[in-house]
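USER: If only I could read C-alpha coordinates as easily as an amino acid sequence. It would mean a lot if you studied the pair and described how this chain folds. Here is the record:
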Amino acid sequence: MHIRINIPSWGWREVARGVVAIASGGRSHHFRKRLRLELQREAPGRIPRLVSSARYAVSLAARLCALEGQRVAVPGYVCPAVLTGLRAARVEPVAIDCLPASIRFDPEALACAIADEGIAGVLAANTYGFDQDFPLLAELGVPVIEDAAYQSGCTEAGSSRPCGTRGDVGVWSFNFKALTSVGGGVLFVPGETSIDRCGSAPSSIRETMRFFNYAARSIGRHHIPTSFPGAEAPRPGADRVARSVLSDIREAPMSELQAAVALAQWESRDRLAMIQMRNSSYLADAIARCDALTTLSCHDGQTRVHLFPVLVGSRDAPTARGSVQRARAHLHSRGIQTEAPYPMVWKSTMHLPNSHDLTTRMFLVPCNASLRKGEMRRISAALEEASQIITQEFRIEAQE
Protein backbone atom coordinates (compact mmCIF):
# COMPACT_ATOMS: atom_id res chain seq x y z
CA MET A 1 0.00 0.00 0.00
CA HIS A 2 1.31 3.44 -0.97
CA ILE A 3 -0.04 6.45 0.92
CA ARG A 4 -0.56 9.07 -1.74
CA ILE A 5 -0.92 12.83 -1.73
CA ASN A 6 -4.33 14.14 -2.84
CA ILE A 7 -6.77 11.29 -2.39
CA PRO A 8 -10.26 12.87 -2.23
CA SER A 9 -12.39 12.11 0.80
CA TRP A 10 -15.47 11.42 -1.31
CA GLY A 11 -18.43 9.17 -0.60
CA TRP A 12 -21.47 8.10 -2.59
CA ARG A 13 -23.03 11.59 -2.32
CA GLU A 14 -20.20 13.35 -4.17
CA VAL A 15 -20.14 10.73 -6.91
CA ALA A 16 -23.92 10.56 -7.32
CA ARG A 17 -24.37 14.33 -7.47
CA GLY A 18 -21.51 14.67 -9.90
CA VAL A 19 -23.10 12.11 -12.21
CA VAL A 20 -26.45 13.97 -11.99
CA ALA A 21 -24.74 17.27 -12.88
CA ILE A 22 -22.95 15.68 -15.86
CA ALA A 23 -26.20 14.04 -17.05
CA SER A 24 -27.95 17.43 -16.98
CA GLY A 25 -25.35 18.82 -19.37
CA GLY A 26 -24.71 21.71 -16.97
CA ARG A 27 -28.08 23.27 -17.81
CA SER A 28 -29.46 22.94 -14.29
CA HIS A 29 -28.68 25.58 -11.66
CA HIS A 30 -29.95 23.45 -8.78
CA PHE A 31 -26.63 22.74 -7.04
CA ARG A 32 -25.25 26.24 -7.65
CA LYS A 33 -28.34 27.83 -6.09
CA ARG A 34 -28.22 25.54 -3.07
CA LEU A 35 -24.51 26.13 -2.51
CA ARG A 36 -24.93 29.90 -2.76
CA LEU A 37 -27.75 29.85 -0.20
CA GLU A 38 -25.68 27.72 2.19
CA LEU A 39 -22.75 30.12 1.94
CA GLN A 40 -24.96 33.16 2.44
CA ARG A 41 -26.25 31.64 5.68
CA GLU A 42 -22.69 30.84 6.77
CA ALA A 43 -21.38 34.35 6.12
CA PRO A 44 -24.14 36.90 6.86
CA GLY A 45 -23.31 40.31 5.49
CA ARG A 46 -21.26 38.82 2.66
CA ILE A 47 -22.28 37.95 -0.88
CA PRO A 48 -20.69 34.73 -2.21
CA ARG A 49 -19.86 34.82 -5.90
CA LEU A 50 -19.29 31.31 -7.30
CA VAL A 51 -16.49 31.25 -9.86
CA SER A 52 -14.51 28.72 -11.86
CA SER A 53 -11.32 28.95 -9.76
CA ALA A 54 -9.72 30.69 -6.81
CA ARG A 55 -7.24 32.31 -9.20
CA TYR A 56 -10.12 33.97 -11.01
CA ALA A 57 -11.56 34.99 -7.62
CA VAL A 58 -8.23 36.64 -6.69
CA SER A 59 -8.30 38.55 -9.97
CA LEU A 60 -11.87 39.72 -9.36
CA ALA A 61 -10.99 40.66 -5.76
CA ALA A 62 -8.13 42.90 -6.92
CA ARG A 63 -10.41 44.66 -9.40
CA LEU A 64 -13.14 45.09 -6.80
CA CYS A 65 -10.62 46.76 -4.45
CA ALA A 66 -9.55 49.13 -7.26
CA LEU A 67 -6.02 47.71 -7.26
CA GLU A 68 -5.57 47.42 -11.04
CA GLY A 69 -2.23 48.92 -12.03
CA GLN A 70 -1.22 49.15 -8.34
CA ARG A 71 1.47 47.45 -6.26
CA VAL A 72 0.17 44.83 -3.81
CA ALA A 73 2.12 43.15 -1.02
CA VAL A 74 2.21 39.34 -0.98
CA PRO A 75 4.13 36.98 1.33
CA GLY A 76 7.56 36.01 0.02
CA TYR A 77 6.54 32.36 0.37
CA VAL A 78 3.33 31.98 -1.63
CA CYS A 79 1.62 29.73 -4.17
CA PRO A 80 2.46 30.87 -7.74
CA ALA A 81 -1.25 30.56 -8.63
CA VAL A 82 -1.91 33.60 -6.42
CA LEU A 83 0.45 35.67 -8.57
CA THR A 84 -1.28 34.42 -11.71
CA GLY A 85 -4.57 35.76 -10.36
CA LEU A 86 -3.08 39.14 -9.46
CA ARG A 87 -1.31 39.59 -12.77
CA ALA A 88 -4.55 38.83 -14.63
CA ALA A 89 -5.86 42.00 -12.95
CA ARG A 90 -2.70 43.94 -13.99
CA VAL A 91 -1.51 44.09 -10.37
CA GLU A 92 2.20 44.18 -9.57
CA PRO A 93 2.89 41.74 -6.69
CA VAL A 94 5.59 42.88 -4.27
CA ALA A 95 7.20 40.16 -2.15
CA ILE A 96 7.51 40.85 1.59
CA ASP A 97 9.55 38.49 3.73
CA CYS A 98 7.84 36.19 6.22
CA LEU A 99 8.62 35.75 9.88
CA PRO A 100 11.13 32.97 10.63
CA ALA A 101 9.67 29.49 10.00
CA SER A 102 6.28 31.01 9.22
CA ILE A 103 4.01 31.91 6.31
CA ARG A 104 3.00 35.14 8.09
CA PHE A 105 4.20 38.54 6.93
CA ASP A 106 7.10 40.08 8.81
CA PRO A 107 5.07 43.01 10.24
CA GLU A 108 8.00 45.44 10.30
CA ALA A 109 8.95 44.71 6.69
CA LEU A 110 5.32 45.03 5.60
CA ALA A 111 4.79 48.35 7.40
CA CYS A 112 7.97 49.76 5.86
CA ALA A 113 6.94 48.65 2.38
CA ILE A 114 3.54 50.33 2.71
CA ALA A 115 5.14 53.54 3.96
CA ASP A 116 8.05 53.70 1.50
CA GLU A 117 7.24 51.65 -1.61
CA GLY A 118 3.77 52.75 -2.65
CA ILE A 119 2.01 49.55 -1.65
CA ALA A 120 -1.73 50.02 -2.28
CA GLY A 121 -3.07 46.74 -0.86
CA VAL A 122 -2.25 43.41 0.78
CA LEU A 123 -2.92 39.89 -0.43
CA ALA A 124 -3.02 37.91 2.84
CA ALA A 125 -2.47 34.27 1.90
CA ASN A 126 -3.31 31.70 4.59
CA THR A 127 -1.00 29.12 3.04
CA TYR A 128 -1.62 25.48 4.08
CA GLY A 129 -4.46 26.75 6.30
CA PHE A 130 -2.27 28.84 8.66
CA ASP A 131 -3.71 32.31 9.37
CA GLN A 132 -2.09 35.63 8.71
CA ASP A 133 -2.24 38.19 11.54
CA PHE A 134 -5.52 39.88 10.58
CA PRO A 135 -5.80 42.29 13.54
CA LEU A 136 -2.40 43.67 12.52
CA LEU A 137 -3.31 43.83 8.82
CA ALA A 138 -6.53 45.72 9.63
CA GLU A 139 -4.47 48.58 11.09
CA LEU A 140 -2.42 49.18 7.94
CA GLY A 141 -4.95 51.44 6.22
CA VAL A 142 -4.96 49.63 2.86
CA PRO A 143 -7.41 47.09 1.34
CA VAL A 144 -6.81 43.50 2.45
CA ILE A 145 -7.71 40.50 0.27
CA GLU A 146 -7.92 37.37 2.41
CA ASP A 147 -6.78 34.40 0.37
CA ALA A 148 -8.38 31.63 2.40
CA ALA A 149 -8.07 29.12 -0.45
CA TYR A 150 -6.92 26.39 1.95
CA GLN A 151 -9.74 27.11 4.40
CA SER A 152 -13.00 26.52 2.51
CA GLY A 153 -15.61 25.65 5.12
CA CYS A 154 -13.34 26.64 8.04
CA THR A 155 -14.08 29.09 10.82
CA GLU A 156 -11.63 31.18 12.79
CA ALA A 157 -10.23 29.38 15.84
CA GLY A 158 -12.18 30.33 18.97
CA SER A 159 -15.03 32.01 17.07
CA SER A 160 -17.75 31.32 14.52
CA ARG A 161 -16.36 33.79 12.00
CA PRO A 162 -15.77 32.11 8.62
CA CYS A 163 -12.27 32.26 7.20
CA GLY A 164 -12.36 34.39 4.08
CA THR A 165 -14.43 37.14 5.72
CA ARG A 166 -11.70 38.85 7.74
CA GLY A 167 -10.45 41.15 5.00
CA ASP A 168 -12.20 43.59 2.70
CA VAL A 169 -12.88 40.67 0.36
CA GLY A 170 -12.02 36.99 0.62
CA VAL A 171 -11.37 33.92 -1.51
CA TRP A 172 -11.99 30.18 -1.14
CA SER A 173 -10.87 27.28 -3.31
CA PHE A 174 -12.44 23.85 -3.78
CA ASN A 175 -9.43 22.47 -5.66
CA PHE A 176 -8.01 19.85 -3.24
CA LYS A 177 -7.95 21.99 -0.12
CA ALA A 178 -10.01 21.64 3.08
CA LEU A 179 -12.96 20.71 0.84
CA THR A 180 -12.44 19.06 -2.53
CA SER A 181 -14.49 19.44 -5.66
CA VAL A 182 -13.26 19.34 -9.26
CA GLY A 183 -12.13 22.95 -8.98
CA GLY A 184 -14.16 26.07 -8.43
CA GLY A 185 -13.85 28.94 -5.99
CA VAL A 186 -15.79 31.55 -4.05
CA LEU A 187 -15.32 35.30 -3.82
CA PHE A 188 -16.84 36.81 -0.65
CA VAL A 189 -17.69 40.49 -1.00
CA PRO A 190 -19.38 42.90 1.45
CA GLY A 191 -23.17 42.77 1.40
CA GLU A 192 -23.53 46.35 0.23
CA THR A 193 -21.25 45.80 -2.78
CA SER A 194 -22.83 45.87 -6.22
CA ILE A 195 -21.62 42.94 -8.32
CA ASP A 196 -22.69 41.43 -11.60
CA ARG A 197 -24.95 38.41 -11.38
CA CYS A 198 -23.03 35.23 -12.12
CA GLY A 199 -24.37 33.35 -15.10
CA SER A 200 -23.98 29.65 -15.60
CA ALA A 201 -21.19 27.79 -17.34
CA PRO A 202 -21.17 24.26 -18.79
CA SER A 203 -18.67 21.78 -17.39
CA SER A 204 -15.49 21.62 -19.42
CA ILE A 205 -14.17 18.32 -20.74
CA ARG A 206 -11.24 18.73 -18.34
CA GLU A 207 -13.59 19.05 -15.34
CA THR A 208 -15.54 15.97 -16.38
CA MET A 209 -12.37 13.92 -16.82
CA ARG A 210 -11.12 15.20 -13.47
CA PHE A 211 -14.37 14.15 -11.83
CA PHE A 212 -14.03 10.54 -12.98
CA ASN A 213 -10.33 10.57 -12.04
CA TYR A 214 -11.12 11.80 -8.52
CA ALA A 215 -14.01 9.32 -8.18
CA ALA A 216 -11.69 6.44 -9.10
CA ARG A 217 -9.04 7.68 -6.66
CA SER A 218 -11.56 8.04 -3.85
CA ILE A 219 -12.51 4.38 -4.35
CA GLY A 220 -8.98 3.01 -4.87
CA ARG A 221 -7.51 5.30 -2.21
CA HIS A 222 -4.04 4.22 -1.09
CA HIS A 223 -4.34 0.80 -2.72
CA ILE A 224 -3.80 2.23 -6.20
CA PRO A 225 -0.88 0.27 -7.74
CA THR A 226 2.49 1.98 -7.47
CA SER A 227 2.91 1.57 -11.24
CA PHE A 228 0.28 4.30 -11.68
CA PRO A 229 1.46 7.97 -11.69
CA GLY A 230 1.89 9.69 -8.34
CA ALA A 231 4.04 7.10 -6.58
CA GLU A 232 7.40 8.11 -8.05
CA ALA A 233 10.42 8.57 -5.81
CA PRO A 234 11.23 12.24 -5.11
CA ARG A 235 13.86 13.81 -7.34
CA PRO A 236 15.53 17.14 -6.47
CA GLY A 237 13.90 19.98 -8.39
CA ALA A 238 11.67 17.78 -10.58
CA ASP A 239 8.30 18.52 -9.01
CA ARG A 240 9.32 22.07 -8.14
CA VAL A 241 9.73 23.02 -11.79
CA ALA A 242 6.49 21.33 -12.85
CA ARG A 243 4.42 23.12 -10.21
CA SER A 244 5.66 26.56 -11.28
CA VAL A 245 3.95 26.19 -14.68
CA LEU A 246 0.29 27.26 -14.51
CA SER A 247 -2.43 27.37 -17.14
CA ASP A 248 -4.32 30.51 -18.09
CA ILE A 249 -7.25 31.62 -15.96
CA ARG A 250 -10.69 30.52 -17.11
CA GLU A 251 -12.86 33.58 -16.48
CA ALA A 252 -16.19 31.88 -15.92
CA PRO A 253 -18.71 31.17 -13.17
CA MET A 254 -18.58 27.93 -11.19
CA SER A 255 -20.00 25.06 -13.24
CA GLU A 256 -22.90 22.92 -12.05
CA LEU A 257 -20.53 19.92 -11.76
CA GLN A 258 -18.13 21.86 -9.53
CA ALA A 259 -21.02 23.08 -7.38
CA ALA A 260 -22.57 19.60 -7.10
CA VAL A 261 -19.46 18.07 -5.54
CA ALA A 262 -18.63 21.20 -3.51
CA LEU A 263 -22.10 21.14 -1.96
CA ALA A 264 -21.72 17.48 -0.92
CA GLN A 265 -18.35 18.31 0.68
CA TRP A 266 -19.87 21.36 2.37
CA GLU A 267 -22.53 19.21 3.99
CA SER A 268 -19.77 16.96 5.40
CA ARG A 269 -17.51 19.81 6.52
CA ASP A 270 -17.79 19.20 10.29
CA ARG A 271 -16.90 15.52 9.94
CA LEU A 272 -14.05 16.30 7.56
CA ALA A 273 -12.75 19.03 9.89
CA MET A 274 -12.64 16.62 12.85
CA ILE A 275 -10.66 14.07 10.84
CA GLN A 276 -8.21 16.68 9.54
CA MET A 277 -7.60 18.09 13.02
CA ARG A 278 -7.10 14.58 14.38
CA ASN A 279 -4.63 13.78 11.62
CA SER A 280 -2.83 17.07 12.16
CA SER A 281 -2.44 16.30 15.88
CA TYR A 282 -0.91 12.89 15.07
CA LEU A 283 1.80 14.55 13.01
CA ALA A 284 2.35 17.46 15.41
CA ASP A 285 2.83 15.01 18.30
CA ALA A 286 5.27 12.92 16.28
CA ILE A 287 7.31 15.94 15.21
CA ALA A 288 7.47 17.13 18.83
CA ARG A 289 9.33 13.89 19.57
CA CYS A 290 11.83 14.47 16.74
CA ASP A 291 15.16 16.21 17.34
CA ALA A 292 15.76 17.00 13.66
CA LEU A 293 12.24 17.99 12.59
CA THR A 294 9.87 20.81 13.41
CA THR A 295 6.89 22.56 11.80
CA LEU A 296 5.80 26.13 11.13
CA SER A 297 6.01 28.44 14.12
CA CYS A 298 2.45 29.69 13.46
CA HIS A 299 0.98 26.23 14.11
CA ASP A 300 -1.59 26.66 16.88
CA GLY A 301 -2.61 23.04 17.37
CA GLN A 302 -6.09 23.66 15.91
CA THR A 303 -5.17 24.08 12.28
CA ARG A 304 -6.90 22.02 9.62
CA VAL A 305 -4.39 21.11 6.96
CA HIS A 306 -4.53 18.79 4.00
CA LEU A 307 -0.75 18.87 3.53
CA PHE A 308 1.29 19.07 6.73
CA PRO A 309 4.49 21.16 6.48
CA VAL A 310 7.59 19.54 7.98
CA LEU A 311 10.82 21.52 8.43
CA VAL A 312 14.20 19.85 8.71
CA GLY A 313 16.59 21.31 11.27
CA SER A 314 16.69 25.05 11.86
CA ARG A 315 18.82 28.00 10.91
CA ASP A 316 20.46 27.85 14.34
CA ALA A 317 20.81 24.06 14.44
CA PRO A 318 21.85 22.87 10.95
CA THR A 319 21.68 19.27 9.81
CA ALA A 320 23.62 17.21 7.30
CA ARG A 321 23.66 18.34 3.66
CA GLY A 322 20.80 16.93 1.61
CA SER A 323 18.75 16.06 4.71
CA VAL A 324 15.42 17.12 3.20
CA GLN A 325 15.90 14.88 0.20
CA ARG A 326 16.97 11.95 2.38
CA ALA A 327 13.95 12.43 4.66
CA ARG A 328 11.62 12.38 1.66
CA ALA A 329 13.40 9.33 0.24
CA HIS A 330 13.02 7.50 3.55
CA LEU A 331 9.28 8.18 3.68
CA HIS A 332 8.97 7.00 0.09
CA SER A 333 10.75 3.77 1.03
CA ARG A 334 8.03 3.31 3.67
CA GLY A 335 5.33 3.77 1.02
CA ILE A 336 4.52 7.43 1.79
CA GLN A 337 4.34 10.12 -0.87
CA THR A 338 5.65 13.60 -0.04
CA GLU A 339 5.60 16.91 -1.86
CA ALA A 340 8.08 19.72 -2.34
CA PRO A 341 7.27 23.26 -1.13
CA TYR A 342 6.18 26.02 -3.48
CA PRO A 343 9.06 27.32 -5.62
CA MET A 344 10.46 30.79 -5.14
CA VAL A 345 9.39 32.71 -8.25
CA TRP A 346 11.13 36.02 -7.51
CA LYS A 347 14.10 37.28 -9.53
CA SER A 348 16.00 37.99 -6.33
CA THR A 349 15.55 36.46 -2.88
CA MET A 350 18.30 38.36 -1.04
CA HIS A 351 15.67 40.42 0.81
CA LEU A 352 13.60 37.29 1.57
CA PRO A 353 15.89 35.16 3.78
CA ASN A 354 13.08 33.65 5.88
CA SER A 355 10.93 32.83 2.86
CA HIS A 356 13.90 31.27 1.08
CA ASP A 357 14.67 29.26 4.21
CA LEU A 358 11.23 27.61 3.96
CA THR A 359 11.88 26.38 0.43
CA THR A 360 15.19 24.81 1.43
CA ARG A 361 14.09 23.12 4.68
CA MET A 362 10.45 22.17 4.07
CA PHE A 363 8.60 19.18 2.67
CA LEU A 364 4.92 18.27 2.88
CA VAL A 365 3.30 15.03 4.01
CA PRO A 366 -0.30 13.81 3.53
CA CYS A 367 -2.79 14.90 6.20
CA ASN A 368 -6.19 15.06 4.51
CA ALA A 369 -9.47 13.53 5.61
CA SER A 370 -9.04 10.44 3.42
CA LEU A 371 -6.38 9.15 5.86
CA ARG A 372 -7.29 6.78 8.69
CA LYS A 373 -5.70 6.38 12.10
CA GLY A 374 -3.49 3.46 11.05
CA GLU A 375 -2.16 5.43 8.08
CA MET A 376 -1.43 8.45 10.28
CA ARG A 377 0.47 6.25 12.75
CA ARG A 378 2.48 4.90 9.84
CA ILE A 379 3.40 8.40 8.63
CA SER A 380 4.26 9.47 12.19
CA ALA A 381 6.55 6.46 12.68
CA ALA A 382 8.31 7.13 9.36
CA LEU A 383 8.92 10.76 10.36
CA GLU A 384 10.50 9.68 13.64
CA GLU A 385 12.73 7.22 11.78
CA ALA A 386 13.75 9.95 9.32
CA SER A 387 14.62 12.24 12.21
CA GLN A 388 16.88 9.61 13.74
CA ILE A 389 18.63 9.06 10.39
CA ILE A 390 19.19 12.80 9.89
CA THR A 391 20.52 13.24 13.43
CA GLN A 392 22.95 10.34 13.01
CA GLU A 393 24.16 11.63 9.63
CA PHE A 394 24.83 15.06 11.06
CA ARG A 395 26.88 13.60 13.91
CA ILE A 396 28.98 11.62 11.43
CA GLU A 397 29.42 14.66 9.17
CA ALA A 398 30.39 16.86 12.13
CA GLN A 399 33.08 14.35 13.17
CA GLU A 400 34.57 14.32 9.66
Notes: The CA atoms of residues 318 and 394 lie 8 Å apart.
